Amino acid sequence: MIAALSTTIPPSLIAGFFLGLSLIMAIGAQNAFVLRQGLRRQHVFWICLTCAGSDALLIAAGVLGFGSLAGAVPWFETVMRLGGAAFLIWYGARSLRSAWQGGAQLDSAAEEGRVVALLPVMATVLALTWLNPHVYLDTVVLLGSISAQYPDPLLFGAGAVVASFTFFFSLGYGAAVLAPVFARPRAWQVLDALVGLTMWAIAAKLLLM
Fold this sequence. Notes:
By secondary structure, this protein is mainly alpha-helical. The chain contains eleven helices and no strands. Helix 4 packs parallel to helix 8, helix 4 runs antiparallel to helix 10 and helix 9 (about 135-145) runs antiparallel to helix 10.
């Protein structure tokens, strides 16, 4: 199957797609947030579009050679790392508090009828995306440097962008399949605990870098 695809689709595009997908699929703060909002069916389209669009901008920057920014501005990496860690610690604490208090559950009718402001949700997803130094390492630095090794770096970057859109929209809208499971309060407690611990683990990793 892959061999057949390689004869019709440029190899650079295929390589960019699969490498981009492998980097995005790792469970992280951003993915956990997309999953949670997908389960609640709140602003899923805009969240997925923001995550994938942000990836597209960063991948384009890497392919076009902006991966040297950290070297040109020595304090950039430190500021992003500490800022990202502080935000993740706060968000993780909020999730763990929700897990401890319990009582949450997914009521489809109630969730669809309750109006939730878009702005705070978008502010959170933008912070989870742009304050995470790993995003820059994966997209700008890693994908940018690897793209230079292929005959068509732009197609490589395009493949990684397609992978990002495919993953985030699949995660956001596919989360609805798990809705019956999260009709139980205990399931939300487990999810909140996992999200909180994931946030803190990433924050610890950032602080120890």
